[in-house]
Amino acid sequence: MKTAALLALCLLGPSPVWADARPSGELTVALSSFATEVLDPVLGGHGVKFYLALIFDYLIGVTPDGQLSPDLGIATAWEPSADHKRWTFTLRRGVRFHNGDELTSSDVKWSLLRAISKRSTTGYAGVLRALLQDIETPAPDRVVIVTKEPTLVIPPYLSRALSSEGMILPRKYVEAVGDDMFAQKPIGSGPYRFVEQVTGSHVKLTAVERHWRLGTPKYRIVTFRVVPEEATRMAMVRRGDVDVADVSRDRVREMERAGFPIYYRNNDALLHLWWILPWDRVPVRDKRVREALNLAIDRREIAATIFGGKAEPAGVPFGLTWGFRDVRWRNAETDQYPFDPARARKLLAEAGYPRGFPISIFAYQLPALPEGKEMAEAVSGYWQKIGVQPKLIPVDYPAFRKQWVDRAAPGAVGYYNLPNRDWIGTYTLLEKFAHTPSKPTDTVADPEIDGMLEAILRETDREKINVFMRRIFARLRSEHYGVPLVYLHTPYVTSKRIAHWNPGSVMLDLNIDELAAQR
Predict the structure, then answer these.
(1) The whole model's pTM is what?
(2) Fewer Cβ close by (within 10 Å): the C or N end of the chain?
(3) Same domain for 66 and 179
(4) Is residue 256 part of a domain?
């Protein structure tokens, strides 16, 4: 069997159901944060997928459970050469951008090169920069990606399952209006056109009359709104002003009692804290300090209180459970950090910090994490009890991200609700956070891990890849590279007119396609 059948062959979903009805009405989605409020895929990355995925099509589509699909992307087939250094993609014919231009192989090549350009800040472009040798366009409906080394990662890297590198943009339009204008008035080929953006308020989209992916969209308008205050979001749901909203786990029962449906993305994310590099002159450079900060936290109490029991303790830094499943990592009880403040104080004293030390904690909200600031306050309280002197810095996420990218706050703490992913998604996460050569946003500098990540990129034997991945997890845990807190089940509340919805399990993608499709 060819590797394409193993990697890209996919769960084939049913063909879109075409409907004759015209789009009508409006669907409104309210989130506590948009993370980064940008419209250009190369500047936004996965944090803005939930609305960009309606504007743009991906080279490789995915099903709601994350399986690569030839039915849901621009590529209807893909196949590697025998040496896994040439990947040939057959493109869907007749796809047009919102300005009427036809999407061809020229747009695909140009989009991929733009995604890995120096201007790109998507976070996953590093691997593609290292791998790509050439992109050929032998026909308008054919693209050949040539890599420097054999690899299995090209199709999933360019799919909706990951970030935004696989989104296809209109070359002629962008070159005509320039990058800055495109970032204000983007054009894609997806089922919804961009209408307007008001920073800090909303992004509004309008339906394409008929689209190959959804058929005729159900809603004429889809609006994504930023509403940081949870009480305001819930009031909007109650009034019928909002159809979908993220809700903190401790308010789920309240909304259920009021008769509003709750939908979960189960085992959706790992809530994880980490320290901004460089570490060379800060206390967390010492392994004992990193272990102490982990032992000081009562994860079970956080899961039960802040997250209303809709969470479980986590133990392996950057350890995503779907990746565990794929590479057969045994998530043993011994991997969990016990709550042991006495040992934490002892380790701090051994490391030369018997009276603790100051540490900054950035506190902000993220999409699907309205409890972000409350969680940061709880961690601060645990660390105070072992003598550490935390300083909470309330910010919005974009302000924190600039500090992180610029490495302007070495040793300070940031956090993510890291979307759960399979092995390739877990690899991309590790490459981003723990691979020194890749980007300035790394948070772990470890040559041993770097070497294993480089080996995986060029490996075509899955069993060998699994061994490397297990070794990486063991190294991350033994060196305490970060603070894994809990695995989250993420709830969303909907209006009573939403009869059914599967939020899916694709990272930072709410499967709005299902709500917008006529059924």
Answers:
(1) 0.78
(2) N
(3) yes
(4) no
